[in-house]
Amino acid sequence: MTDIKNEMDSDLDQNYSLNSNADPKNMQELTIYVQNLLQNVQDKFQTMSDQIITRIDDMGNRIDDLEKSIADLMNQAGVEGSEK
Fold it and tell me: How far is CA 47 from CA 14, 17, 34, 58, 82, in A?
């Protein structure tokens, strides 16, 4: 019995996914549609968040490399850098 319900839920999930043009006709279908919508939004936010964190990490690494390069150039030029 549980397998049949899971199959029906799976069919409903597919029929009322965000890419489907079918309108939900009852509360269960509406619930599944909203859950799919919220999951899709959450997935997109997670992807964007991961991308932002990666870019921030990359920027931090580039800034560290730039600071090291500037310190090296200052040492080569014989200029003392100010300590923080």
Answer: 23, 19, 20, 17, 41
